[in-house]
């Protein structure tokens, strides 16, 4: 430990001691150091505490020099999907294994297979990289739950689409439970960074039911790999921001300046300029680099929460999601909000809605997503690059109030990433006067509506 670092540590410890006893100080300061040093601590999501992606390997048969395995990737995250261009799975072989063949997926490289004189393996790489097949491949190359270009739905949105699978035939490997060596160092891109995978662990063999449901069969061997997501590993900046407005206050609270970082400030497109209409502007790049519309927040996604109307027993909110990325369409998007009154949602008008209850005693979180074939596709930046809905909520007269920013959400997530909210002191607060003139309310509503259409 260097001299400067020692001074800082001692200073922090001294600050702690001003408020706690010596033993309490040792425990608290030690805990803080542990949390800072723990690399995967940020992977825990309090709104989805059990969310993960589990990769299961089922050995279904032995071969002359190895085994055939069915690999199933299950997305147990409630609101985080794997979007286009899909997942990429990698690992390292424990010995000198090769992949003889694959069904439902393929490796990105074959590697050096020059030592094989007869049949040539599908892949001889020590660290193979596997991707899903595209839709429409020949039937003999398909496997159950394959061939969706690597797109996997969130469990809470579409359980039937939250699974991806393929079959792999492995050679130069063990031919029994005692001689098989588990692959190591699993990596998962979904499609970008953010996932950290643990080691493979042998678990009780998977049991299958035959098609007539009268007989059970069992995998010869099964191991699992668990991957968790951390937004901090995915990007140093948020990928979305939130703005607020209300009928009872003329203040429109925009997204914070440079909310998603301003590294793209010199490579953005001014709205309605000639550049925004040029041919090929919406063509994605291989590295998925965004091309953003020039805004003060420089975020690909902005969520606007507008408190629209107040009734005797209900109140109404308008939610608008705007895409500022010219190169990205968001398919099967999700929006999660945490608000105490989401326990009394009466009607959602043009989104699908599902309450999320990560803790049984608290029902304050809900997931919004697009209706299939209607607005489940959020188009790229431009006139069509937004989706909107309204929500009707029933008041709890014992606790309901518009004061102190109560009408606005505590947390907002888009596609599983937490959005940056404005500072609380900038929220549109309820005026001191209890009565607001109807003309003023109308002007505020019009102003908020105009704000939804501009930056």
From TrEMBL:
One GO cellular component, as annotated: plasma membrane
Any one Pfam family match given in the protein's UniProt record, by short name: COBRA
Top-level division of the source organism's lineage: Eukaryota
GO biological process, one term: cellulose microfibril organization
Subcellular location as annotated: Cell membrane
InterPro entries given in the database record: COB_C, COBRA_pln
Family according to the record: Belongs to the COBRA family.
Listed name of the protein: COBRA-like protein
